Amino acid sequence: MGARRRSFARVQFRAEIRSEAGYPLFVNGRYNALAETVSFSLIHRSTGRVYGLDLGADHHNPTCVNLGEKHKHRWTDRYADKEAYVPDDITAAPNKPVEIWRQFCLEAKITHTGVMDTPPAVHDDFGL
Amino acid sequence: MTTQVETMLQDGLGAMFIVAPKGNLFRIRTPFWYPDGGVVDIFVKDHGTTFTLTDLGEALGWLRMQTLANRRSPKQQKLIQDICTTQGVELFKGQLTLRCDDPERFSQAVIRISQAAVRVADLWFTARTRSVESMSDEVADLLQERTIAFERSVKLSGRSGRDWTVDFQTRTPEKSALVCVLATGSRAAARRISEHVVAAWHDLSHMKTGAQPLRFVSLFDDTSDVWADEDFRLVESVSDIHHWSRPDEFERALVSEGNAGR
Who among A36, A48, A60 is closest to B39 (CB)? Predict the structure, then answer.
């Protein structure tokens, strides 16, 4: 997978998703080891994010419900991508991005034919 | 330390900010939200006599996750610099940071960096996937800012008799130019667009000669990683190519004599 290292503490990638229907979809991923946050987002070229998983940061729904640090966004006509729910299928801890990616792909029915490497250990602290 | 940070926040802001240890940092969960409802977290490192506040790159990371762009556009860069100036925040290694050496001003520093994070993330509202602004709008903004006179969507007749719409015609005291903007988020469309531009330049090639020759400039939106080397070579054969990520070079091509190509 075309991972791009932003720093030792942050990694991110982007990949095109091929589908029989030919939807213009991409997946963006990022892992911030210091903040302990993980995100995977499915981006539709003309719409933006239509589906996504966030771990490690809290979320507030438009209906004023706080969901906690594990939530998935799913597009709805009413709220676009702002409404999220707590998924049962993601059980890996935020410091296990490879395992989270596997669980995310399974639920989103994405077949990843490549390899996602474990992010390197944190060697810096962003110069803090 | 937790007590000190908590005390400083409680004194200045109240209980809406929740502090918790995070490794060798402290995380402050703020009442501010990203555009999708995600909660803004700020992190604090205690250096003894000073504190460093940072978002650990979460705001720019959030922004990047919502779009297909590989790079921030020149306009976004400028807006981010403006936000940092307003809030007195430093952008370092992709993170918003702020030093604070006065405990009495700690709460104010938290508000400032939180506001910067929200404003940076709010640039999403101007992103092209939101269909609020097109690439051509951004180019028009740049030309206006650099005081280069221009006309948009110029219709010109080719040698074949076909009419072509060129995105911009620019004019400076030294030179006039026609500019075609190549922008797409799709690799499949990239080749088609390149070929269309080549056809247009070829059919309009008579305008490159004569008493008032026009320079042909093809401006690639390289914030999306969709262009192949062949696309650049194809278009380069009939025009000067420039990259949106390097606006200064693009500007020089429009204002100076001679070739200022790729």
Answer: A60
Chain centroid to CA A69: 13
Cβ A73 vs Cβ B38: under 8 Å: no
Q: Record the tokens describing residue B5, joined without a space.
A: 């940070």
Distance CA B69, CA B136 (A): 16
Judged by phi (left if over 0) then psi (alpha if -120 to 50, else beta), residue A127 lies in left
Enumerate the domain spans of chain A.
Answer: 5-108
Query: Which ipTM did the prediction report?
Result: 0.80
Mention every residue, 6+ apart, whose C-beta is less than 8 A from residue B98. B52, B53, B54, B87, B88, B89, B90, B109, B112, B113
When scoring B53, B65, B184, B186 by the number of chain A Cβ atoms within 10 A, the one with the most, hence best to mutate, is B65
Three-state SS at A21: coil
Residue to substitute from B42, B46, B51, B68, interface A, most A β-carbons within 10 A: B68
pLDDT tens-place string over residues B217-244: 999 988 777 899 999 999 999 999 999 8
Q: Compute the CA torsion angle B227, B229, B235, B241 (nearest 10 deg).
A: 80
Distance (Å) from the C-alpha of residue B77 to the closest C-alpha of chain A? Answer: 17
